[in-house]
User: What shape does this take?
Amino acid sequence: MTNATNATTNATTTQVYRVYIKASPEAIWDAITKPEWTERYGYTGLVEYDLRPGGAYKVRPTAEFRAGAEANGHPVPDVIIDGEVQEADPPRRLVTTFRMLMDPSLAKEPATRVTHEIKEIGDGVCRLTLVHELEGAPGIASLVGGQLEDHGAGGGHAWVLSELKSLLETGKSFAEGR
Assistant: This one.
């Protein structure tokens, strides 16, 4: 019984997302790690990475993100996500810790772990796999799992990866395509 319980707990505390993108591994890596890309898709955060083990990882809000959140009564800190780079192997693998700082209750949850794996599979297509280990962080799990989308919190990782794919393949994110 213990093994079944552990398997169930692990399944609910680890989220795995996979998307196939017609782009090079380098283009996908840049879209994940460079602010001139990340400001164009998903939640439009400006990433900062010190791409070495122990290096800092931060996401700052764009002016538009801040204005929209504050117009809805949600103050936004200068850093909305922080963490630490645990592993960086450009353009194949990036592992970071992840702490959401926008909401005080979420900021109290322990740091989680995000792994991005990029694998070229042929014909100019890559598989991007995102694994988010969420042990002890049920609020973050709901947020990044998209369960709060109908409450205005966005579609989580699935939405972000969909926008990333759209941006790399068409040159425009969903918002830019309107």
About this structure: Residues 116 and 130 are 5 Å apart (CA to CA). The two ends are 52 Å apart (CA to CA).
